[in-house]
Amino acid sequence: MKQYVNFMAVFGLVLALSSCTAQLEDYQTTSPKLDIQEYFNGKSIAWGMVQDYSSKVTRRFCVELDGEWQGNEGILKEVFYFTDGEVSYRNWQLTKLEQGKYRGRAEDVVGEANGQQKGFAFQWQYNLMVPIDGDVIELSLDDWMYQIDEYRVFNRTNMKKLGVTVAEITLFFDKQLPIKNCQLSV
Fold this sequence. Notes:
By secondary structure, this protein is mainly β. Helices cover 13% and strands 57% of the residues. The protein has one domain (24-185): Calycin beta-barrel core domain (Lipocalin, Beta Barrel).
């Protein structure tokens, strides 16, 4: 009986903690309003790092971004410069839907990415094919962006496999002119 009570206590604690995560609606009344179509139109730059499950920084990088929109359809070109010398590319095809919702596709994204904006926050969820040690692994990404001011956006991403967080990405976007160049900063 004591084992059952202990199990139920642990189960209740896990259930309570899992319900304590931020929801997009929490940011409904915050400002400035993050408009993905507006922010990712033109050139911007970002600096980031990847941390493994133990919070150890495993990679650092810089990203040059160039977005172009025609109506509700956009293309966002990303060039990643990693400190180990790797250069990789991602080209997003984005669609702005109703009520702050977005849909997107990219070469290494499985199916569609779906996102929504509320206040100063944007949540973007998708599955990404990630090369790791000569293999390619499908990971689920939960991407959160927060607009700080008209030039800067912070981004935090959880990368999961089978529901377990295996890595986190932190990014800092800047589009204040003049736009910097990654090759000078990596």
